[in-house]
């Protein structure tokens, strides 16, 4: 007898999430426009993200679109990954979609002509998880800092050389992998040997915790990207790394 009902035989959870109703049910909020942004990220919808984000920007501030749209979408993707529903391809597509949306928001945020100071950002050696770093870049630029973006998977020596060359007010690092976050400690040791005392704000996931980051000299834990401009401002005004750590980490 031919099978008529396949529903109890095989469920492709990655396909289940492709239903247009999926994210509406799971991440639902009142705001339909923001909802579409969230949904585009979850579904990795590169075809529509530009239009959807532009539409959201007609009614919302770029920072709101970043936090209430793009970031909410990628948080849901993280959950789907952690639950084993999403694999690398879906997650990569979702990340790329978020980056396209972020670039549009960043352009809309603009950057003041007069530079307030200089920041260097990087994603740790061996690590390609750069969404947090790109978020930090956008927020720092919007508040008037010149950002020297060293990119992802940056060797520790390159970071130290860049600090010696550009003498930034603040150095930022992002990592997601437990095996890469050790590079932050190495950078701190190498800078200390050189006698450089730049505030080094580190954020990310996995083992990147307050206790790990404040366990080495210069290290300041950055729980959220939105703190980066405030910390950079304090550093520019001459607050030491110890002072910034006290203010934000205690
Ligand atoms: C997206 C993602 C990917 C994407 C990355 C795309 C990209 N361009 O970044 C892709 C698909 C490529 C990927 C690949 C891999 N991934 Co991945 N990935 C994730 C996922 C789903 C989300 C991470 C993320 O981007 N979150 C959103 C961003 C915005 O968060 P964030 O960086 O932490 O930033 C926030 C704060 O930390 C803070 N912040 C960050 N930086 C800074 C800096 C400053 C200055 C400040 C103030 C604040 C701040 O601000 C942000 C919020 O405002 C997580 C799952 C999870 N549960 O987190 C796994 C996860 C991180 N991945 C994991 C793994 C293992 C991998 C792979 C090794 C898988 C593989 N087998 O190949 C590869 C990595 C290869 C490599 N060498 O790096 C593991 C890591 C486990 C661990 N602790 O070591 C996780 C946790 C999944 C899991 N549970 O197993 N991944």
Describe the structure.
With 250 residues, the protein is of the alpha/beta class. It folds into 2 domains: 13-109, Methionine synthase domain (Methyltransferase, Methionine Synthase (B12-binding Domains), Chain A, domain 1), CATH 1.10.1240; 117-249, Cobalamin-binding domain (Rossmann fold). Helices cover 53% and strands 10% of the residues. The chain has 12 helices and 5 strands. It has helices spanning 13-16, 22-26, 32-43, 49-59, 62-82, 88-109, 131-142, 156-166, 182-193, 210-213, 227-236, 241-249, and strands at 117-123, 145-149, 170-175, 200-204, 219-221. Strands 2-1-3-4-5 form a 5-stranded parallel sheet, with helices on both faces. Strand 3 (170-175), helix 9 and strand 4 (200-204) form a beta-alpha-beta unit. Helix 3 (32-43) crosses helix 6, helix 4 crosses helix 6 and helix 8 (156-166) crosses helix 9. The protein starts with 12 loop residues before the first helix and ends with a helix. The structure holds cobalamin.
Radius of gyration: 20 Å
Poorly predicted runs are none
Number of extended strands: 5
Strand order of the largest sheet: 2-1-3-4-5
Shape: globular
Bound ligands, named by name, code or SMILES:
cobalamin
Count up the helices: 12
CATH topology of the largest domain: Rossmann fold
CATH superfamily grouping of the largest domain: Cobalamin-binding domain
Cα distance spanning the termini: 69 Å
Reading off the top of the CATH hierarchy, the class of the largest domain is best stated as: Alpha Beta
Strand-residue proportion: 5-15%
Count of domains: 2
CATH architecture of the largest domain: 3-Layer(aba) Sandwich
Estimated structural class: alpha/beta
Q: What about the largest sheet? A: 5 strands, parallel
Indicate the percent of residues in helices.
40-55%
């Amino acid at each position: 007898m031919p099978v008529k009902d396949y529903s109890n035989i095989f469920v492709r959870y990655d396909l289940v999430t492709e239903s247009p109703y999926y994210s509406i049910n799971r991440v639902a909020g009142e705001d339909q426009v923001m909802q579409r942004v969230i949904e585009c990220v979850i579904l990795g919808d590169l075809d529509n993200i530009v239009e959807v984000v532009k539409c959201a920007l007609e009614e919302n501030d770029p920072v709101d679109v970043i936090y209430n749209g793009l970031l909410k979408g990628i948080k849901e993707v993280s959950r789907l990954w952690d639950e084993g529903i999403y694999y690398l391809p879906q997650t990569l597509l979702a990340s790329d979609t978020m980056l396209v949306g972020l670039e549009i928001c960043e352009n809309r945020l603009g950057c003041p002509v007069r530079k307030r100071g200089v920041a260097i950002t990087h994603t740790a050696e061996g690590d390609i998880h750069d969404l947090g770093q790109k978020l930090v870049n956008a927020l720092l630029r919007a508040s008037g800092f010149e950002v020297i973006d060293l990119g992802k998977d940056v060797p520790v020596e390159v970071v130290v050389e860049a600090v010696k060359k550009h003498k930034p007010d603040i150095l930022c690092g992002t990592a997601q992998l437990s095996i890469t976050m050790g590079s932050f400690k190495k950078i701190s040791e190498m800078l200390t040997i050189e006698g450089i005392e730049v505030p080094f704000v580190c954020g990310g996931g996995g083992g990147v915790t307050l206790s790990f980051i404040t366990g080495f000299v210069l290290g300041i834990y950055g729980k959220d990207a939105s703190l980066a401009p405030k910390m950079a401002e304090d550093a520019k005004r001459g607050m030491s790394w110890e002072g910034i750590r006290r203010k934000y980490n205690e």
